[in-house]
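Objective 1.3, modelling of assemblies. Example input:
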Amino acid sequence: MEKLRDGYLFQEIRRREEEHRKKYPTANVITLGVGDTTQPIPQIITSSMVQKACALSTDEGYSGYGPEQGEKALRQAIADKLYTHVEVKGDEVFVSDGAQCDISRLQLLMGSNLTIAVQDPSFPAYIDTGVLIGQTGEFHEKTRKYKNIEYMKCGPENDFFPDLSITPRTDIIFLCSPNNPTGHAATRKQLQQLVEFATKNGSIIIYDSAYTAYISDDSPRTIFEIPGAKEVAIEVSTFSKFAGFTGVRLGWTVIPKELKYANGFPIINDYNRIVCTCFNGASNIVQAGGLTCLSQEGYMALCSVIDNYRENAKILIDTLTSLGLKVYGGKNAPYVWVKFPGSSSSWDVFTEILEKTHIVTVPGAGFGPGGEGFIRISAFGNREVILEASKRLKTLFK
Amino acid sequence: MEKLRDGYLFQEIRRREEEHRKKYPTANVITLGVGDTTQPIPQIITSSMVQKACALSTDEGYSGYGPEQGEKALRQAIADKLYTHVEVKGDEVFVSDGAQCDISRLQLLMGSNLTIAVQDPSFPAYIDTGVLIGQTGEFHEKTRKYKNIEYMKCGPENDFFPDLSITPRTDIIFLCSPNNPTGHAATRKQLQQLVEFATKNGSIIIYDSAYTAYISDDSPRTIFEIPGAKEVAIEVSTFSKFAGFTGVRLGWTVIPKELKYANGFPIINDYNRIVCTCFNGASNIVQAGGLTCLSQEGYMALCSVIDNYRENAKILIDTLTSLGLKVYGGKNAPYVWVKFPGSSSSWDVFTEILEKTHIVTVPGAGFGPGGEGFIRISAFGNREVILEASKRLKTLFK
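Predicted structure (tokens):
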């Protein structure tokens, strides 16, 4: 616990935003920092939650504890709708209150005596939960890295994917695609290399597909599209960015039955025991909403919300490109990853943008040393807000 | 992980119930096993969840991520309504998706290098999460105990409260009152002794008050009624049994600012970091319901549901007492704890009751070796079901 640095990144961003609002009480602050959804949830989905809540006040409709692993119908719908061609089974899906919570439960499964690799930059929860569980050594101020973690650099020089030829073996490899923060969706070829690498090394991949609904090209939607992945990978995902459920809370983890320890014992059995001991299931009201997200009509409604965020990303990309900046991501993810020229630290750029335009972003360095020099800009927002942000950015960098 | 015994108790009970239903497909099985609420949630409470769900489909009412620690209004309402005379502050309350989940987060806070004490018998999650986090040694088949855990025997001989004069010092003491499974509410004097013991030893008490709403006498409702408790105790609680939220999911943990490590660092700061790293807040829809539970009208409606369960407990107590059995609990908790004469194991008694009356209970030994010879019977159920159960028990033990 003592090793853990500072505050959690997004809490720190929120703290700085609050400070800024106090300093400029009349400023129209635009929040493109923490990747938080902004568009209303389609009514067909909230209606099913309303219906479930009403039922809980009736004798016939009341229910108490549900299965810790999630309602059977929802587990099956996730398998059928989101893993159609890769044959994930309903009982390999563990419904949860969100991907971040699942990551810490997976860390509990793995314990402290193992080695992990993360993309650099990466979503901070992989490292922070690893530090909490005791997997890491001390933090080095100079390198900005923890000991005992393998940081796999991902930048423009390697198409934002780890160079596996120079990556040492670790027990666990965290990989997020489409990536937060870089917005890069791993290609089929990249993922094939990764699965091969994990198979050869006896490593387990923890694949975070939280942004898969934003993929607009033919990049794989799930790691299980890659042959052999079921023997080496766990997939963590969420309704947060797919259905605007960031505050509603619903996610899932897929543990294939084929995934085994070196001694042949299925990992799914252990994960099931953890879920039953440390968790009591996602809210039944919320699960009813999740089921409707996966209905034909619910899914269509969500696609239109996502299209809207994608259009936002395009506006931001066009704006920043027109200013001569190097812009990545945004095509398969709701995040635009911008390289700033010069040697200013990304926290300085973050502060400059905030001070001069009242726009909250996230400094790349917050995601690890490999993010230095970059800024992540979120495409979540109402259209007018995104247009206003573009206008301000144009003025700042003209 | 390998040290952990069998399945989680309540999962095992459910498995046996399913098996029984398959064996006797036409039997009218009565479930008084897993302590699961059965009565509808008062409409005033579900209405506020309906309202919140509807708002999420509007531009004005939509919201994304909330504070990981819970909505400010709910934190304050918990402090004001449930800790009225003990001056808990809103920012000492961490709202969660349930007490069981909080216990595993507290275990993460504490880590593996410490010693714990639990009541014997006790709610199995304290031990099981401790085993998962690596606090314990091997399980001894003969004693039915894990190494490195202090089992504090609680039975009729010591008024169901640990004999602290023979209890060795541990870093953490788990105490549940009103107790699950014994139904005993610790008296003020007992809790004063405990706080004194923890203070003297530099131990932290993790006080589980999940059943506090069932107290009908003047036993303390919270550990913080005891002077000095804020320096040595954390309290974990839940809306599950208080508001029928077992499937809806909402709980909280109180960490007083006065509670510090030996080096003077406030524990609340570390817990806050864990909550922000491993959790993303309880569902916003559910929190809206929680807030209404604490309104005047919502609270009154819940008290009437609880009175109904209390009446159930009285019926069970009267029935079992009339059969000449020794019956404990039930007055301050929804559980009746029954001693069976003779040397049969509690799993045998469980099986006999199930086979001959189709009533699911929980064998005392499932809660630890100190529960051997007892059966826990839950008072959650519709009145007719409880009356029918009483009838069957009378026939069995007449």
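The two ends of chain A are 45 Å apart (CA to CA).
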